[in-house]
Write the structure tokens for this entry.
Amino acid sequence: MPKTKKVGPTRGLGVRYGSTVRKRYIKVITELRKPHKCPNCGFVRVHRESVGVWKCHKCNFTFTGGAYTPATKLGIVARRAAKGLVPEEVTKEAAKAASVEPASEEETE
Ligand SMILES: [Zn+2]
């Protein structure tokens, strides 16, 4: 009777590093291994070429992104900032920091 061997992203790791780390590793690895949507042609054919480098196998569009996902929240903000557009959240935060007066004062009679 053949012994069933569990295979998954953590094969090779064995029982090392602890279950919490292995679970986290599985989450990251499955995320980077699944195909992602191409920002150029819209097809879900983007695969990771290298750390932070993503390539679409449909239109050969190569772009940089996060190490484990093609788009990171920080990357989107950075791209907008590079275009000269200030992200809304940042503007709000700056406005909040700039105003010394309390924003909402009840003025009911
Ligand atoms: Zn593409």
